[in-house]
User: Fold this.
Amino acid sequence: MPQILVDGLSKRFCVAVRDPGVLGALRGIVRRRMREVSALDRVSFKLEAGELLGLMHLDGGTLVLTELGGAYAEANILARKELIAGRILRLPIISWIYDTLQRDDTHSTARSYFLDHLTGEFGDRAEKQLETAIRWGRHAELFAYNDDSGELYLED
Assistant:
């Protein structure tokens, strides 16, 4: 499941064109000619969760476990959850959710609070961002989510 997906990214910029020699330099001062240069042209890529968390990377089409990925593969379920919790707390959205829940007197906050704030940053992708953060936070047992009430909360 791709966590970061870039599709059709392009970057173009303009550069000055100068004819060779002193005469070319003088012409460039009087009448600057520009041409467009393409740095990126419709580049697409995806970054998988394992890469994002530093558990693995691709090397020439071969999946390679990092040292951390090897530790994850050999760990029991509790150790895996702790390892993932430590990694995902480095992600700004999950860290913000966790800190918000810790600061709240009841250690719970409505999902709509987070969605409203994320919509300002991510627009129509806010829902997907929040869903991923909730799923990862629940997996690592950093926080819980009540589907009925729409509340995120810290468990005792």
